[in-house]
Backbone:
């Protein structure tokens, strides 16, 4: 990137000149990386609300206009006209696959869908009530022990080794997710089948059982593909930023993605889909009306949240929520399901969008508000909702990890701080547990 101009920062009686870069959609960024060297000052930005950590070619997002594009393609178009595995290819490789690439990609995903048989035993050691996200992150980091080719990323592994690790992870995460569910319900594991597509295979591993054979419904397969596409990337969100940050220490892909899974689990991020459905269920069970619930949230002074609402970057409707809502209607109709939670959700949304509290704070439904309704219709249990999000987000995490490692400017990510603790002080005699004369001599190593 070449600077398109300069910005001048006045600090005290001095002016500092800083380069300004412009993105391909006209976004401006002031490069402050030399500011401390020039002036001794750092910038302070709680929650990185205004800080760009990299330049990226993967996803473009305009939160004010409600735009989301992967590699230039609108997410709505991808959701309507492509399959999840193609979108994963697009994100990771930068282009849509042609017919031959699609064929090879599917073959590779099939070839890598199993994991080392020893890893199967790990599942049995988790307690029955273990959250599947805990199992998922532990199993993903364990992959680095079984497939150590990328154990430390030194930058000289070659493209092929990285591509194999990426494909392996994409394919195995689906198997790990399904196995963790089977373990939680005490049913035997179902192995992946080479004749099934990515999404159909996952559904079969989740729901097939020798006593209840599972018929794969194309409506559910298509809805799952759409859901995963909508989750596939979202530029520098919390979990992707975690993958990049942890990856900046040059750990392997599996370890960096395990960190992303842990970040995603949080209720302010991907964990919101489980929280949103639990809220709707609780309202139904306890007879709380949408109006009462909205008032509780408003009166809680920020302690209680409407999960599935609000977003750091969308200050208008989340475009993914629009597609999810339409998909919800379609799936419920096709499966002939009348979900009372859908009616409660619609009423909550309607009330919130007309309420000054939500209007003044730009709080609109995000992707997590309606995704739980589709997942319920598919038969996915609540504690697997965030796992489904992780399956979808994986291509984005891989694409960002790869892009960062190919970028010659990728540095160890290490933010600064403003220290506001005590200034220099010394231990008083009464605070010392060891008299100075008895202290062991420091040994040099
Ligand atoms: N319900 C009620 N009030 C909310 C909500 C909500 N969902 N979200 C934000 N607010 C309020 C805050 O309390 C705050 O009010 P105040 O100005 O009176 O103090 C104001 O709106 C601004 O909120 P912030 O927390 O400062 O906004 P921020 O950008 O930091 O937060 C976030 C974004 C974390 C997503 C927030 O909207 C939230 O907690 N939403 C609920 C959880 C959720 O759905 N997360 C999923 C996000 S999408 C994703 O990660 C996939």
Residues:
């Amino acid at each position: 990137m070449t600077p398109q101009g300069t910005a001048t920062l006045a600090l005290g009686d001095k002016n500092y000149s800083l380069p300004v870069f412009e993105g391909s959609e006209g976004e401006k960024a002031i490069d402050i990386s030399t500011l401390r060297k020039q002036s001794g000052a750092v910038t302070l930005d709680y929650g990185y609300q205004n800080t760009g950590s990299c330049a990226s070619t993967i996803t473009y997002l305009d939160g004010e206009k409600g735009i989301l594009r992967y590699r230039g393609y609108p997410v709505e178009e991808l959701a309507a006209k492509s399959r999840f595995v193609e979108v994963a290819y697009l994100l990771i490789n930068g282009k849509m696959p042609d017919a031959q690439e699609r064929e090879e990609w599917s073959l590779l995903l099939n070839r890598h869908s199993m994991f080392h048989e020893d890893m199967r035993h790990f599942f049995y050691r988790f307690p029955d009530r273990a959250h599947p996200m805990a199992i998922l992150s532990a199993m993903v980091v364990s992959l680095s022990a079984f497939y150590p080719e990328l154990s430390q990323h030194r930058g000289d592994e070659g493209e092929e080794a990285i591509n194999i690790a990426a494909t392996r992870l994409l394919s195995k995460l689906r198997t790990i997710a399904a196995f963790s569910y089977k373990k939680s319900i005490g049913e035997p594991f179902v192995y992946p089948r080479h004749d099934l597509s990515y999404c159909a295979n996952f559904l079969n591993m989740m729901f097939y059982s020798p006593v209840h054979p599972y018929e794969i419904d194309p409506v559910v397969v298509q809805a799952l593909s759409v859901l995963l596409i909508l989750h596939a990337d979202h530029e520098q969100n919390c979990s992707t930023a975690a993958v990049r940050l942890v990856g900046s220490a040059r750990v392997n892909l599996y370890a960096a993605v395990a960190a992303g899974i842990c970040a995603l689990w949080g209720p302010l991020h991907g964990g919101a889909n489980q929280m949103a459905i639990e809220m709707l269920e609780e309202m139904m069970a306890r007879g709380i009306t949408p109006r009462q619930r909205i008032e509780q949230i408003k009166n809680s002074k920020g302690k209680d949240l409407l999960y599935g609402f609000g977003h750091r970057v969308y200050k208008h409707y989340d475009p993914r929520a629009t597609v999810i809502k339409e998909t919800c209607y379609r799936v419920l109709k096709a499966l002939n399901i009348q979900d009372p939670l859908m009616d409660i959700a619609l009423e909550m949304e309607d009330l919130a969008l007309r309420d000054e509290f939500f209007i003044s704070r730009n709080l609109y439904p995000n992707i997590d508000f309606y995704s739980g309704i589709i997942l319920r219709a598919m038969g996915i249990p609540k504690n697997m909702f965030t796992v489904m999000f992780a399956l979808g987000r994986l291509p984005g995490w891989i694409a960002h990890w790869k892009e960062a490692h190919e970028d010659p400017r990728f540095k160890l990510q290490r933010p600064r701080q403003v220290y506001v603790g005590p200034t220099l002080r010394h231990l008083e005699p009464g605070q010392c547990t060891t008299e100075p004369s008895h202290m062991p001599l420091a040994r040099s190593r």
